[in-house]
Specification:
The protein is an all-alpha fold. It is 89% helix and 0% strand. The chain has 2 helices and no strands. The protein is elongated and about 65 Å long.
């Protein structure tokens, strides 16, 4: 059987880990909110459509190049 002091130590470690994980979850939620707001701002830029199309084309070109390199 575990000593009471060891159980208390483990409980404290679990509590500490729980606090850290909650902080990580909170920061992820803040990042999600920031990304949503940033995306909204970017979509309102008049150049958005042109830039989005250019990025899609570049991504498609990279995928084609990767397929050629693999094939």
């Amino acid at each position: 059987l575990m000593k009471e002091s060891k159980l208390i130590e483990l409980k404290n470690k679990v509590d500490s880990f729980t606090r850290v994980m909650q902080e990580v979850i909170n920061k992820i939620a803040l990042l999600e909110n920031l990304l949503i707001n940033l995306t909204t701002v970017i979509k309102r830029l008049k150049e958005y459509e042109e830039i989005a199309n250019q990025l899609k084309k570049e991504s498609d070109d990279r995928q084609k190049d990767n397929r050629k390199a693999e094939g």
